[in-house]
Amino acid sequence: MAADSPVRWIDPEEQQLEEQIAETEARWVDAEVEVETLRVELDNFALVHHQRLGPMYVRLDELDALIAEATAARTGDPEDIRRAFEARNVVEPMPDLEAFFAEADAAARGESDGAAEGDGPEQPVIPQAPQRIRPDKEAQRLYRDLARRAHPDLAQDPAEQELRGAFIARVNEAYARGDVLALAALAEEWAGETGDTGAPSEGTPERLAWLRQRLDWLTARLRRIEEARAELVDSPMGQLLMLLPDDPDALLEVLAEQLLESVATRQAELDRLVGTV
Question: Which of 51, 121, 146, 275, by CA, is between 20 and 30 Å from 183?
Fold first, then answer.
């Protein structure tokens, strides 16, 4: 009868650290994905909010100015005149006189920026609004899986970290667009990568020290990610998004309806002041 194979001894502390790191690493990756998702949502929400609702905010400001001016014309009160001036300044802010005279001097000296040569003023590039503020479930699944497998901080070797960093940058771009096909292609691409994490082998003296350092690093990184998420949530656009966090696309429809009601109310007030009703 063959002798029993010897059982490999495992350092209890090493085993405990391995379990703690696996748990903390999973929480860290989940937190990274959550923060990146929130950042994408906020960027997309800000862009769509500006493009869809911006004209309504402009109309509200114009109506506020007209109402204030009509009120001042009726009362002649200095305080009403001041309010009218301030309301109009929101719509048409006073020019920067220093910049105005600097441009005039430059024009007099012939120091144009190319407009005089027939090039014409450069038109601002308006980014295309995403179809959805929040990437759909399939995009989220693919992104989470890629982040778990390819995140650069899962490796220790600098060359491997650089390779992973360049790859994850492409993943982030595809996720920001909500491009499921691109994410699926990136998942297939990464499946062919082995990726050396650079961690010491199990059971070696270096492994225990590396595990302790890794756990400390993960704990600190998780704390910083939680702080970054809190900053995003507390930002003006984050607070707006938190009004309906489960459906940011529907939130825009709610805001649009509220703005339309405000425009109608302001317009009725203006009509009453100028005597058109």
Answer: 51
Total-model pTM? 0.68
pLDDT tens-digit readout, 45-62? 898 888 889 999 999 999
| More confident site: 17 or 130 | 17
Helix (H, G, I), strand (E, B) or coil at 6: coil
Measured distance CA(24)–CA(137) in Å, rounded: 24
Label residue 212 left, alpha or beta by phi (over 0 means left) and psi (-120 to 50 means alpha). alpha
Confidence check: pLDDT of 5 > 60: no
Query: The dihedral of CA 112, 113, 117, 122: what is its sign?
Result: negative
- Amino acid 34 reads E
Local structure of 10: helix, strand or coil: coil
DSSP per-residue string spanning 79-119: HHHHHHHHHHHHHSPPP-HHHHHHHHHHHHTT---SGGGT-
Total residue length of the chain: 277
Please give the full DSSP string across 227-272, using - where no structure is assigned. HHHHHHHHSHHHHHHTTSTT-HHHHHHHHHHHHHHHHHHHHHHHHH
Alpha-carbon distance 82 to 70, whole Å?
13
Coil, helix or strand at residue 52: helix
Q: Are 68 and 82 in contact (CB under 8 A)?
A: no
Buried b / exposed e along 244-257 (16+ C-beta atoms within 10 A): eeeebeebbeebee
- How far apart CA 147 and CA 226 sit, in angstroms, is 17
**At 86, which amino acid appears?**
E
